[in-house]
Specification:
Layout lengths: L5 E5 L6 E5 L4 E5 L2 H7 L4 E7 L3 E4 L2 E4 L2 E4 L5 E5 L3 E5 L14 E3 L14 E3 L6
Parallel strand pairs: 3-10, 10-11
Antiparallel strand pairs: 1-2, 2-5, 3-4, 4-9, 6-7, 7-8, 8-9
Length: 127
């Protein structure tokens, strides 16, 4: 498709590069302890594209479905059968046009952090 939006990203050492085409069909935030530990942050911001919209180059390692650079350890994405969840912090450009619509594990959100304008789930919801 001519003029289709392409977003690129990768790890800190630039050993892994990826590209997603088109718009994601879902974006969200997760405050669960697994996402916190995987990102080293207070929450994970991610967006989901169909596998057919995604490709990458470089050497990744995967732990519990989460892919990261085998050299620098940068967290990148989670690949599934039909979709790929891109960690928004791994994109080259700030994804200002991707607004999260879902927020999960909000019971673990820091009490000083304001709520986002999303649909929130406080219980054990899958992302």
């Amino acid at each position: 498709m001519m003029g289709q939006l392409k977003r690129t990203g990768g790890c800190l050492c630039r050993g892994v590069r990826f590209e997603v085409k088109g718009e994601p069909y879902r974006a969200g935030l997760c405050h669960c302890s697994d996402c916190r530990k995987a990102t080293g942050s207070l929450f994970l911001a991610s967006a989901v594209w169909h596998v057919s919209q995604f490709n990458y180059t470089g050497q990744v390692a995967t732990y519990s479905g989460r892919s990261f650079c085998s050299n620098c350890g940068g967290s990148l994405f989670s690949r599934h059968v039909a979709h790929v969840e891109i960690y928004l912090g791994a994109l080259d450009e700030a994804p200002n046009d991707i607004q999260p619509s879902v927020e999960v594990w909000t019971g673990r959100r820091e009490i000083w952090m304001p709520a986002f304008n999303t649909i929130c789930f406080t219980e054990d919801e899958d992302t």
